[in-house]
Design a protein that fits this description.
By secondary structure, the chain is α/β, with parallel strands linked by helices. Helix content is 41%, strand content 16%. The chain has ten helices and eleven strands. A six-stranded parallel beta sheet has the order 1-11-8-7-5-6. A three-stranded parallel beta sheet has the order 3-2-4, with helices on both faces. Helix 6 packs across helix 10. The longest helix is centred in the N-terminal third of the chain and has 21 residues. It starts with a strand and ends with a helix. 43% of the residues are buried. The model has no long low-confidence stretch (mean pLDDT 97). Bound molecules: nicotinamide-adenine-dinucleotide (NAD). Nicotinamide-adenine-dinucleotide binds next to helix 10.
């Protein structure tokens, strides 16, 4: 049976450490503050935003929410971001996705000042990640790497396979693993012979959004399985992209859903907000 990679407990320990760093910042009159922009009423986004605000509250990070109407114009959205870019009391800006289709999310991410881009989606920060330079890294892939490191799981030289090529998870995940010297393959909906590829993975990261997609016969025995997916099964319960009950019998390590990458993602957001506040250019 696989060892469970306990993201909830690991994230709690990380938050404890961050709390101390935040106290130190406050002693220097730096009061970290996060601004969160949400457009429309997406129910899942509301839960994510609530979890982020709870983490801020727990750590003593100031928090300001901007709830925009579904029909807001691109110009209004960009104006708000520019206003927040200028505000000296705000260290981090996060635009919760998804946003309505009439808005250009890439343009919005581009407008967030790279130094305040706690989600790591500004093309400058993405470019730095690709070049292997120090930067703000998008929170979910960052959380995956941190969880592996906290469990002393080596990444260097391993065959890593990522399923999913979204801009927010799959692609930055590819570069995070590559920067740690893994040999990385990225798969997506057009990949041929997926199972043949996933069976070569020492580390398999799954981020597609389909319950129980990865089955026992798709994984290499004794491999490390990271399940990023957050879905609802037929009974309405939260589940990942991996058939956990079956795959845990063959893997050496596996993340649960919930309690795996979800809490790590939020802990990394807190890590990023501390980083932006420490850089201190805006307070
Ligand atoms: P997305 O819909 O943007 O991308 C899904 C990716 O999966 C695409 O690249 C697509 O090519 C690939 N895909 C779809 N069907 C496939 C198939 N049959 N075979 C191979 N590849 C396939 O999704 P996303 O935003 O990257 O999110 C993926 C999952 O991760 C979702 O369940 C989401 O809720 C979850 N998520 C979790 C966290 C967290 O904090 N744990 C953060 C972000 C996203």
């Amino acid at each position: 049976m696989a060892v469970i990679l306990d993201g909830k407990e690991t994230a709690r320990r990380i938050r404890e450490k961050l709390k101390k760093n935040i106290e130190k910042l406050k002693a220097k009159n730096i009061f970290p503050k996060l601004a969160v922009i949400m457009v429309g009423e997406d129910p899942a986004s509301k839960i994510y935003v609530k979890n982020k605000s709870k983490a801020c509250e727990e750590l003593g990070v100031k928090y300001e929410e901007f709830l925009l109407k579904e029909d807001i114009s691109q110009e209004q959205l960009l104006n708000l971001i520019e206003e927040l870019n200028k505000r000296r009391d705000i260290h981090g800006i996060l635009l919760q996705s998804p946003i309505p289709k009439h808005l250009d999310i890439n343009e919005a991410f581009k407008t967030i000042l790279p130094e305040k881009d706690v989600d790591g989606f500004n093309p400058i920060n993405v470019g730095k990640l690709v070049l292997g330079q120090e930067t703000l890294i998008s929170c979910t892939p960052f959380g995956v790497i941190k969880l592996l490191e906290e469990y002393n799981i080596p990444i260097e030289g391993k065959n890593a396979v990522v399923i999913g090529r979204s801009n927010i998870v799959g692609k930055p995940m590819l570069h995070c693993l590559l920067n740690k010297n893994a040999t990385v393959t990225i798969c997506h909906s057009k990949t041929q012979n997926l199972k043949e590829i996933t069976k070569t993975a020492d580390i398999l990261v799954v981020a597609i959004g389909k319950p129980k997609f990865v089955t026992k016969d798709m994984v290499k025995p004794e491999s490390i399985i990271i399940d990023v997916g957050i879905n609802r099964n037929e009974e309405g319960k939260v589940c990942g992209d991996v058939d956990f009950e079956e795959v845990e019998k063959v893997a050496s390590y596996i993340t649960p859903v919930p309690g795996g990458i979800g809490p790590m993602t939020i802990a990394m957001l807190m890590e990023n907000i501390v980083k932006t506040a420490k850089n201190g250019k805006f307070c």
